[in-house]
Design brief:
The complex is a heterodimer of chains A (about 300) and B (about 650). Chain A is mainly alpha-helical and about 300 residues long. Chain A is built from 12 helices and no strands. In chain B, about 25% of the residues lie in helices and about 15% in strands. Chain B contains 18 helices and 20 strands. In chain B, the strands form 6 sheets. A 7-stranded mixed sheet of chain B has the order 2-1-12-11-10-7-8, with no helix packed on it. The chains are: A mainly alpha (about 300), B alpha+beta (about 650).
Chain lengths: ~300, ~650
């Protein structure tokens, strides 16, 4: 009996721990008390110490037994890290949680800096081998950026949203547009044209640069606001109403644009990380084939 | 005349609702302002935009006011006439006005087309709010494009270059795509091959073979490790570590044979000259090699050698063990106290003594032969007789006519100031010359017998003189054999230095042939000119040598007082200078041993001042016997 109770107690404690974890929202960086960070650090230390102890003549290079070992580990690791893209699209209860997988992806990916660089024996040049190394570093650096923005930007994103959904932000602009259209009817043609430009401007327009910088110097709503404020004539009441509505639309647009900027900053690294990963795998293939081709 | 305005609006569910309003009169105004007959709530429409009229109730005349036009059937216009029967479509801003006819009435159908604003358009949330569409190509296209580009440039290109020049002796200069595969610059000697990968990588997926090296390097050395069978070289190697074993099995399974030239001559390790050969390069095989070869059933005469300071076998100089016309040589370790039997008799101690007959004679001849030391009464020096070879590496053999003859004259007659000398090295000639001398020259004629000299007055013992003289004349030729015997016998000119064979069984007097060794260390390299800051006696204890058979060449202990191996280990029985020269194997030994000087890097690695500031030579040589005496350190002011 006693043992039964004991087992029950253990299960209860485990469940509590799990609940505490859920409560604290343990992110992928802290997953399982930094398990993968520890593994990655241990891996790096083993590599560095082995490298220092092993005497390779005439000097360390990718073709020594240590070089081949590190190269093989590195190449397999790169392929496994790439599988995250596949794993995250598959809902499964097996093969670790996605969080564990991501945690391992980040820390083992970082350890590739050591494994890959020490594999080169610090012999870099203008060749396919160094290209593979450079692409790997580019992927890792973009990944570091990604982890950093994932850690820092969601709070800003949340603050900016003020509990609005994305579509609500857009809906607000649509509402102001409808009201502007209504209120702008009495305006003289020049003013009406300015308001019309504001309505006709796509809030999602502007290229990558606009998205990242969050600066929209060609904003038609801001321009309309200036035109209405400077203009005169026509229905003064309508003008004042349009002016107020334009102020509101500028604010709503500002929120949307900040949102788009943060999302762009959160996403942009993937446009380096993913294509460069495939370029890296191609370079890796060329690197490996070349080594055996000119054996 | 009636116009019917039919407004069509769309409900949220997409259903269209039409509302008709009858407008009386022939003329209607159209615009954004509320006063207009047809009000179009569209900011792109002017407050009073156009007038629509019909004079006959059939044809409709549209005229734009105030500059802004409209579209008629897709073409912009400012004035238009439309037959209501055939109909027409007008466009004002975002509104469409269709003209038609139902019965007598002209129907004007107004409908908003397009959204009120851009924001109002239907949107895919996931796409609009993300970066999709703002980055050209997106992630997927980018991934494939970059991957394809890399494969094309760095895999297809190089293989193409390889295929194009397969079987071609030499590639044309210029860029070849497979140079992107070069893992590092080639060494200085191979630099010109950098664009011609195939000069070494002859076949795809086949490791570089020795045949590729030999294609250019076809010169053969003397003894060369490269000529040793690969199996023997491999058996000599120290057993590899675990990692090396894994690599070796890996290499073997991937068709990479062991023991190739490139196993040691690694390439693509960066531009520059050949690096100095590290000690380990040799010691991995030579340390403990005899046992390993023994295990493999192979034999070797070589001693195990590792670090010079700690584990180097005693030197084995090549000495003459049997002198003569065809001397026998053997390499004998210093530990076995070898003697060098050159066939010569020569006591160094007598010649180098500061006092005594040799020193006195040298002093008297010092003006003639520039015996500097002897002029000061200090006797002869090594250099008075031993002359270095032009390259300064070794010494020329001592020449009897040039060196010994300075003191040891072979003159036997002087005629009018010209000396006649016995021919050195030709005993038969010596015998002939002496015989001829005694035959052709009578004894000096006495005055009494009518010589040219002045006579003494009176007849003094005339008969006795006559008898003596003419008897001497009669027997003189037979005296030659005595003279010859005297020259070759003890006390004679030849006998002092040479081993003489007395006449026997038909042979006349013979002299044993003398050979002087030009090199004792045939397996190692030593150069005197690198040691010119020393005195000869620092290494060669000549002043104590009483016989020519004494081997005055220093042994390994002597060298170890200044030279240590890369590990810096020293023999505790040897007193080593303060900053000994770190000497790897390659300082004295050459891998492709061809008897010439080993290659050495340009930079001298050790400051030699501590070495040249040696202890006094007497102490230094004595140090072999008086181990542990370090008094010279203090005496030297160190």
């Amino acid at each position: 009996m006693a043992s039964l109770f004991k087992r029950g107690g253990a299960r209860k404690t485990a469940a509590q721990t799990e609940r505490v974890r859920e409560k604290l929202h343990e992110g992928f960086l802290r997953h399982a008390n930094f398990r993968w960070l520890k593994i990655a650090v241990a891996l790096c230390l083993i590599v560095i110490v082995t490298y220092a102890l092993v005497d390779v003549s005439p000097r360390h290079n990718g073709g020594s037994w240590l070089g081949y070992t590190l190269g093989t580990i590195g190449a397999l690791l790169i392929l496994w890290l790439t599988l995250l893209g596949y794993r995250k699209r598959r809902m499964t209860r097996n093969f670790w949680s996605l969080k564990a997988w991501t945690s391992a992806h980040v820390y083992l990916g970082l350890s590739l800096v050591i494994i890959g660089t020490w594999h080169t024996g610090f012999q870099l040049g203008w060749n396919v081998h160094t290209l593979a190394w450079a692409l790997m570093m580019l992927v890792i650096v973009s990944g570091i950026y990604g982890v950093t923005v994932y850690a820092m930007l969601p709070a800003a994103l949340s603050n900016n949203r003020e509990e609005m959904t994305q579509m609500q932000m857009l809906e607000a602009i649509r509402a102001f547009d409808r009201q502007l259209h209504e209120a702008g009817q009495p305006l003289p043609p020049a003013d009406a044209a300015a308001v019309k430009l504001s309505l006709d401007q796509d809030p999602f327009a502007g290229g990558l640069l606009r998205r990242i910088s969050g600066a929209y110097p060609g904003c038609a709503t801001a321009a309309a606001r200036r035109v209405i404020a400077a203009g005169s004539g026509g229905d003064a009441g309508a003008r004042a109403k349009v002016e107020t509505l334009l102020d509101s639309k500028v604010a709503a647009l500002g929120r949307l644009r900040r949102h788009l900027r943060l999302r762009a900053l959160l996403e942009i690294w993937l446009y380096v990380h993913v294509p460069m990963t495939f370029a890296l795998i191609a370079a890796l293939a060329a690197h490996i084939v070349s080594v055996f081709f000119y054996w | 005349m009636t116009f019917i305005l039919r407004r069509i609006s769309t409900t949220n569910s997409g259903r269209e609702i039409a509302r008709d309003t009858a407008l009386d009169g022939d003329r209607l105004t159209l615009g954004r302002a509320a006063e207009n007959g047809i009000q179009i709530e569209d900011l792109a429409v002017n407050p009073l935009h156009a007038t629509i009229s019909s004079a006959d109730g059939r044809s409709v005349h549209i005229a734009a006011e105030d500059g802004l036009g409209f579209d008629l059937n897709g073409r912009s216009a400012t004035v238009a006439d439309v037959d209501s029967q055939s109909g027409g479509e007008l466009r004002f801003g975002s509104h469409r006005l269709t003209i038609g006819r139902e019965g007598d009435a002209i129907i004007l159908t107004a409908q908003r087309i397009g959204e009120l604003s851009e924001a109002a358009k239907d949107r895919d949330e996931a796409r609009s709010f993300s970066l999709q569409g703002t980055v050209f190509g997106g992630k997927r296209l980018g991934a494939w494009a970059f991957a394809a580009l890399v494969l094309l440039a760095f895999l297809v290109g190089p293989i193409w270059a390889f295929r194009s020049y397969q079987g071609v002796d030499e590639r044309p200069e210029g860029f070849h795509a497979d140079s992107a595969w070069s893992s590092g610059a080639l060494s200085k000697g191979h630099a010109k091959l950098k664009d011609d990968c195939q000069s070494c990588h002859v076949q795809a997926f086949v490791a570089v073979r020795d045949s590729a090296c030999v294609a250019c390097h076809d010169d053969s050395h003397g003894f060369d490790h490269a000529d040793v069978p690969t199996a023997r070289l491999l058996a000599a190697q120290a057993p590899p570590g675990r990692g090396e074993r894994v690599l070796a099995s890996f290499a073997e399974s991937f068709n990479k044979p062991k023991g190739r030239c490139v196993a040691c001559h690694t390439e693509h390790e960066g531009a520059g000259a050949m690096p100095p050969t590290p000690q380990q390069f040799c010691s991995t095989c030579h340390e403990g090699m005899a046992a390993r070869l023994g295990t493999a059933g192979l034999k070797t005469a070589l001693g195990d050698a590792g670090d010079f300071g700690a584990s180097h076998p005693q030197f084995k100089p090549r000495v003459m063990i049997a002198p003569g016309a065809k001397p026998a040589y053997a390499r004998i370790s210093f530990d076995a106290r070898p003697a060098d039997l050159s066939g010569l008799k020569f006591p160094h101690d007598v010649h180098l003594k500061a006092g005594g007959g040799v020193a006195r004679m040298a002093m008297s001849l010092s003006g003639q032969y520039r015996f500097e030391s002897a002029a000061g009464g200090k006797g002869l020096q090594c250099g008075d007789c031993h002359v270095a070879t032009p390259d300064g590496v070794r010494f020329q053999p001592v020449d009897m006519e040039k060196q010994c003859a300075m003191c040891h004259s072979l003159t036997f007659e002087e005629i009018g100031g010209t000396r006649r000398t016995l021919r050195h090295g030709e005993p038969a000639q010596v015998i002939a010359d002496l015989s001829a001398y005694y035959r052709s020259t009578p004894p000096a004629r006495p005055i009494e017998l009518g010589g040219m000299a002045r006579r003494r007055p009176g007849q003094f013992a005339e008969g006795a003189v006559y008898n003596i003289y003419f008897r001497e004349v009669a027997v003189r030729p037979t005296r030659a054999s005595d003279a010859v015997a005297a020259v070759f016998s003890k006390g004679g000119a030849c006998y002092d230095c040479h081993t003489i064979f007395a006449p026997a069984s038909g042979n006349d007097w013979r002299v044993m042939k003398v050979h002087q060794a030009d090199r004792y260390f045939t397996k190692g390299w030593f150069t005197h000119n690198k040691h010119d800051t020393f005195k000869c006696t620092d290494c060669h204890d000549a002043s104590g040598s009483r016989a020519a058979s004494d081997l005055l060449v220093p042994d390994v202990k002597n060298c170890r007082t200044c030279h240590v191996g890369e590990s810096g280990q020293t023999d505790p029985a040897i007193q080593v200078v303060r900053n000994p020269t770190v000497s790897s194997c390659a300082m004295c030994h050459e891998y492709h041993a061809d008897g010439s000087a080993p290659w050495e890097p340009k930079v001298r690695r050790t400051d030699v001042r501590d070495i040249t500031a040696l202890p006094p030579s007497s102490l230094y040589i004595a140090s072999f016997r008086q181990v542990g005496d370090k008094s010279w350190h203090r005496a030297g002011g160190g």
